[in-house]
């Protein structure tokens, strides 16, 4: 039972970059800022490629919804081992307003077109931290979902997934086809080295628009304000209880 | 998957210093050429598998490919791409007059080893940052009080 796996990858601001709020306070500065693949999506691609290496999957398709530069992200996915890519082009102005629901609808449509058996997504994007796309995709397809996966094993026609939840680890069985969202400890993604990037240039990336899939990408939300989190003040160590009491009194706390 | 148990961050300087030790090894020629005899056991970095096949590429193109690969890797270097490029260039330039093919093979293998080390550095850095950001609430508090 060889699976066709669709993996969603998102182009986000690089995890190591210091984020700055735009002057208009409606977003963050993205011009000229280093972008890369969402780290959880790297883990998702790595898992799909490992499934292919174990001969559980037969094809890995990397999908990205975003501006023209999203093709670089897809190339990284291809360099890591994906077989081909699909780029759903979103005009640069609309990229910010793209919501998990739009992406989920796009994924659902592509799953039907590509006849996929498994969808693997990163659990959340480090820019919006929605943690919603995998769940919504599963709901739209009426497929079971295994989110926050830290281990995936295949049994006959089913997946046994270990999930990282607040209380610890939960092991569940889901019937295929299914949607899985990758958590941090699922695996350690390989680095896309230059030779692999070069080889990946031969792999195909199909291009299309959201409208081609019949998905309307008009926003449901409006961002009112974006601000820096309050600067957390350092704690102060005190010598003894008396100093503590004095300081608390000074601060007007007691 | 083995979990990274160490929740404290190793001083980045330490990791980087050991990396540059690796690259410095590439650049420092052995004092006594005669000491490199077949009776010596292979250094540990020679036992890894090559990225590039040694049979189809000439040594010169292998070295060039190694340089390109390292340069590509250096784009994400924590201390900056320019710093990395400078060090890389000097390390390679120091050995440009090497002619013994065995020594060159050894140096290429060292270069491959450094690639692996840098990949590991990046992976660890990313893992630890994400772990701190998304999973460790106590560590986040500890950091603010330092």
Automatic annotation (TrEMBL), chain B:
GO BP terms, alphabetized: negative regulation of oxidative phosphorylation; respiratory electron transport chain
Occurrences of domain Complex 1 LYR protein (ranges): 62-113
A Pfam family this chain is assigned to: Complex1_LYR
An example Gene Ontology CC term for this record: mitochondrion
InterPro entries: Complex1_LYR_dom, Complex1_LYR_ETFRF1_LYRM5, ETFRF1
PANTHER family from the UniProt entry: ELECTRON TRANSFER FLAVOPROTEIN REGULATORY FACTOR 1 (PTHR21024:SF0), GROWTH HORMONE-INDUCIBLE SOLUBLE PROTEIN-RELATED (PTHR21024)
Protein family: Belongs to the complex I LYR family.
Name of this chain's protein: LYR motif-containing protein 5
Recorded name of the encoding gene: LYRM5
């Amino acid at each position: 039972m060889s699976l066709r796996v669709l993996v969603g990858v998102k182009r986000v601001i690089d995890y190591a970059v210091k984020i700055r709020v735009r002057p208009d306070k409606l977003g963050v500065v993205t011009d000229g800022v280093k972008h890369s693949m969402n780290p959880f999506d790297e883990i998702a691609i790595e898992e799909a490629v490992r499934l292919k290496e174990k001969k559980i999957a037969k094809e890995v398709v990397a999908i990205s919804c975003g501006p023209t530069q999203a093709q670089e992200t897809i190339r990284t996915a291809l360099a890591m081992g994906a077989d081909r890519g699909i780029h759903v082009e979103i005009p640069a102005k609309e990229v910010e307003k793209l919501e998990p629901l739009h992406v989920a609808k796009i994924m659902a449509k592509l799953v039907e077109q590509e006849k996929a058996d498994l969808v693997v997504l990163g659990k959340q994007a480090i820019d919006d931290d929605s943690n919603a796309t995998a769940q919504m995709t599963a709901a739209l397809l009426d497929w079971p979902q295994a989110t926050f996966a830290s281990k995936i094993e295949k049994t006959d026609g089913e997946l046994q997934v270990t999930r990282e939840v607040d209380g610890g680890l939960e092991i569940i069985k889901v019937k295929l086809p299914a949607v899985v969202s990758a958590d941090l400890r699922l695996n350690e993604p390989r680095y896309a080295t230059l030779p692999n990037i070069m080889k990946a240039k031969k792999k195909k990336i199909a291009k299309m628009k959201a409208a081609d899939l019949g998905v309307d990408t008009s926003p449901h939300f409006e961002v009112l304000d974006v601000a820096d989190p309050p600067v957390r003040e350092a704690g102060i160590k005190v010598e003894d209880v008396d100093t503590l009491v004095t300081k608390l009194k000074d601060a007007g706390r007691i | 998957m083995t979990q990274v148990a160490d929740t404290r961050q190793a001083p980045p300087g330490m990791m980087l210093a050991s990396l540059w030790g690796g690259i410095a090894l590439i650049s420092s020629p052995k004092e006594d050429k005669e000491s490199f005899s077949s009776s010596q056991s292979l250094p540990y970095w020679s036992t890894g598998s090559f990225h590039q096949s040694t049979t189809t590429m000439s040594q010169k193109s292998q070295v060039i490919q190694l340089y390109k690969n390292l340069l590509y890797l250096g784009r994400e270097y924590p201390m900056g791409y320019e710093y990395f490029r400078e060090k890389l260039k000097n390390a390679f330039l120091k050995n440009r007059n090497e002619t013994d093919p065995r020594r060159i093979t050894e140096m290429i293998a060292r270069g491959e080893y450094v690639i692996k080390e840098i990949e590991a550095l990046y992976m660890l850095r990313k893992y630890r940052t994400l772990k701190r950001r998304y999973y460790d609430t106590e560590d986040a508090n500890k950091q603010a009080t330092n």
